[in-house]
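Form 12-C: Joint structure prediction
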Amino acid sequence: MILDLHEIIEAPGKSVSFRCELDRERLAFPGLEAFAGPVTATGVVKNTAGVLTLTADVEADMTVLCDRCGKPFEKRLSPRYTATLQADAEDADSENVFPLDGDGVDVSDVAETCLILDMDRKFLCRPDCKGLCPVCGKDLNDGPCGCKKEIDPRMAALGQLLDDIQEV
Ligand SMILES: [Zn+2]
Ligand SMILES: [Zn+2]
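Section 2 - Result
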């Protein structure tokens, strides 16, 4: 969504607010199962002493998979992003600088890009999730499984040797 900034672009102290929906097709979190509704960004672009700053509050309700046990659960993300808008963003070396589109800015593109750069998140169904047993795959949150701790192969050989001796 292009937000028209011509009323504030030469007017320090002024601001213009916006609300838009983001393109969910662009937003592929690792561990994301599905979005539970539209992903929105609500915010404002403010001219502070000639510098245009965008602030966006993103809200996304989604179903994600736990990084440890793989169980799906509901998660609400509500990050706040800020970005500086410049006509010549090509020369900028900061990630938080975005280009103007004439006298406007594509606010949904800015919010989507901020969210994409922020996607290396891991989701846990609870902070102390115990995960799955690597041997039998049981969910260890439901209690311990019957697997023995993995035995060192050298110890296993020694055990076999002792068995052989006892059999003689
Ligand atoms: Zn879990
Ligand atoms: Zn097990």
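Section 3 - Comments
The chain has a mean pLDDT of 89. The first strand starts at residue 2 and ends at 4.
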